[in-house]
Design brief:
about 55% helix, 10 helices, mainly alpha, about 220 residues, about 0% strand
Length: about 220
């Protein structure tokens, strides 16, 4: 079985974000819970819930126009030629084949590392978008996170700045979630419950929002 140990600097940088008491406040603010009148939640709060979610069975293995709109709630846009190819062309067919091979009903913590390793269907889908079609790596990751929110994380420049640049973010996060009998995964579920979020918000998304909100608030200088 393929395995990889968590990078100590990665775990040390991620841990304080999750343990910070501000995390629950930030989650509630992001998802629009208990906001004062006139205050609106972040558009990203609709990312996983728009049109019932990208992983619902009837659309789990194909990328829809709703998925492309959902990605826009995270402040990125799929280039129009690529979007059309996804919806009407060969790219969409190729991505559907790869999505079919990516587990849908599993959390990253419970998946074998091979599921997110180099050469996996998930990695091939990411590479197809980025390397063959020139899609920005942040956008490609968000498309895949929309289709497999429990298995594949949102990862952007703010989060990268906050936690560093492991050789594989997916594998580093996978290892961190499984360390110490899945202690980090349990912490994320506890944060979700404390914030009053529905179970449709995955542990991965809780992690992403907590790190993004905190690091965004203090600003970041990383490219």
């Amino acid at each position: 079985m393929f395995s990889v140990g968590p990078s100590k600097p990665f775990v040390e940088r991620l841990g304080p974000f999750i343990a910070d008491p501000q995390a629950v406040v930030d989650l509630r603010r992001y998802f629009g819970l208990g906001l004062p009148p006139g205050t609106v939640p972040f558009t990203g709060s609709r990312f996983e819930h728009l049109a019932g979610g990208g992983d619902r069975p009837e659309v789990a293995d194909r990328i829809t126009a709703e998925d492309l709109i959902a990605v826009q709630t995270l402040s990125v846009t799929v280039p129009a030629p690529v979007a059309l190819d996804i919806l009407e062309g060969r790219l969409g067919t190729r991505l559907s084949g790869l999505l079919h091979a990516i587990p849908r009903d599993i959390d990253m913590v419970d998946a074998d590392a091979l599921v997110v390793a180099d050469g996996s269907p998930a990695d091939q889908a990411w590479g197809l978008l980025c390397e063959q079609y020139g899609v920005n790596w942040v956008i490609a990751g968000k498309i895949l996170a929309r289709k497999r929110p429990r298995l594949l994380p949102v990862y952007d420049r703010v989060v990268r700045c906050a936690v560093g640049r492991p050789s594989s973010f997916w594998l580093a996060l996978h290892a961190a979630l499984r360390e110490d009998d899945a202690a980090l995964h349990r912490q994320l579920l506890e944060l979700r419950q404390a914030a009053g979020l529905p179970k449709t918000v995955s542990a991965l998304r809780v992690c992403d929002v907590v790190v993004w909100m905190s690091h965004r608030a203090v600003g970041h200088a990383c490219p």
